[in-house]
Amino acid sequence: MRQGNELYTAKETEEAWSKAAAIVQTYSDELVHRWNNEIDTYLVYAGLFSAILTAFNVQSYLLLQPTPTAGPDPTVLLLLQISSTNPSFVNTTQPSTAQSTNENFPPPVPRWAVWLNTLWFSGLVLSLTSASIGIMVKQWLNEYTSGIPGTSLHAAKLRQYRLNNLKRWHVEHIVLIIPVLLQLALALFLAGLLVLLWNLHHTVAAVISTLVGLLGIFTIVATLLPLYDNTCAYLTPPTRLI
After folding, report:
1. b/e per residue, 34-53, with b = 16+ CB within 10 A?
2. Contact 77, 21 (CB under 8 A)
3. Within 13 A of 233's CA, how many CA atoms are on the CB side?
4. What is the 3-state secondary structure (H, E, C) of 152-173?
5. Which end of the chain is more exposed for a tag (fewer CB within 10 A), N or C?
6. Chain centroid to CA 193: how far?
7. What ranges in the chain are assigned the alpha helix state H?
8. What percentage of the chain carries pLDDT values higher than 90?
9. Predicted confidence (pLDDT) per residue in 42-81, tens digit
């Protein structure tokens, strides 16, 4: 009804529905297009970062393997056999044979190598996880946009129904998680890089630590500033999640 008892005509009702459907379609298409573009960017970054990190991991995992040593010394084996058959010979040969057999055991893996591989492989897993989530979200968005062409009444209702479900199931939050995982993966990689450099050369490690520290300070400040100043334009997915 317009005013009083005046009713809309069928043509006016149809035009009103078409305008409402067009508004819903515009909002929906822009939202899906923005999410798809963001995910495409994340997937490219995740692919490049995973490739670089894999190259480092191929070299770092060797640090977890024991240093190959030669087989047992035949002389040591012969002495052990003699000692087992001659008890009087045990007391005179056991210290030397024990010392010789201990030399055949590989040295323990350095603790810093364990931390290095833990950080780098964790970063690789997070990077691949972000890529996997991004692919899944793109599949959801493709299903969301399929079968609702035009601005008919049925298409408008179906589009609004699917849009409500996207919000109900927090798809937007899942999209925001992807760059957060990539940032965490980068932080783990840089942490592992510092572990490696501090065990190789202190001068190089000090320089790289300074650069990493500056990057960390900038990232933290840029993430937290919008929480204290509404006019700040440094809005990022981590800020929205906070």
Report:
1. ebbebbeebbebbeebbeeb
2. no
3. 0
4. CHHHHHHHHHHHHHHHHCCHHH
5. N
6. 17
7. 10-60, 74-85, 87-102, 111-145, 153-168, 171-198, 202-228, 237-241
8. 45
9. 999 999 999 999 999 999 988 888 765 545 555 545 545 5
